[in-house]
Design a protein that fits this description.
By secondary structure, the protein is mainly alpha-helical. Helix content is 79%, strand content 0%. It has one domain (2-166, 180-269). It is built from eleven helices and no strands. The radius of gyration is 20 Å and the shape is globular. Residues 1-101, 114-255 form the EamA domain.
Amino acid sequence: MTMLRSALAAAFIALIAAGQRPALGRKDLLAIMPMALFYPFLFFSFQTFGLVYTTSSEAGIIHATVPIFTMLLAASFLKEKSTWLQKLFTLLTVTGIVSIFVLKGVQFEAASLSGILLILLSALSSAAYSVLARRLTQRLPLLQLTFYMSLTGCIAFNLMAVARHAAGGTIHQYVEPFTHPAYLGALLYLGVMSSLVSSLLSHYALSIMTASRMSVFNNLSTIITIIAGAVILGEELRAYHYTGAALVITGVIGASLSREKAVRETHSSR
């Protein structure tokens, strides 16, 4: 489904940006390619194959470390500075997510070592994407940036899918899902809301805040998922859900406020 959601996202952003797309130069297009390579291509590829060899709980714990990787990469390549208080609150969000999965009873298995490595590479890809996107959003239009990112994912994933089906003599399976209305509904949501809208909002956020600060908000997605599961699916919430959620929310608010305080102090000292 990743190949089709990428295609749908690229098609919708092309319609939205019609008439608003000044031609990007070769230099700009080459600059976008590494970002699009990390996300969506490498991120989803590593994640998909990693989940074959490990559990979703293990993957959730590893992906909770993305803000830490982002902070390290942003400090190295973007020279973003963070206070010790911001580092502490970022670690608090990671602790909140990890505590939810650990208290839920996750069990690590030696057999899933390759899966853990793949999920770790997926997390690193996400962090690298945020750092590269932060730099590009400072000088490129957000619609164009999102369009070419979606287009790259569309081409890469669909070429992989066509090659796999052609090799297996199952090319008819490539279009067969389109005959199912339920599939089309899910595809529409994933392509437009989950891929296109989320990418546009992420790029906008990265255009006005640092990569390390923005990445902290990613851990809120786990909390939102838990809440949605309780409200929509009637899943039971336990004490560790509330504890983990409190840690994540406190960490996000604390990291944001500590960053604002550091910025104000920097400006006042000048």
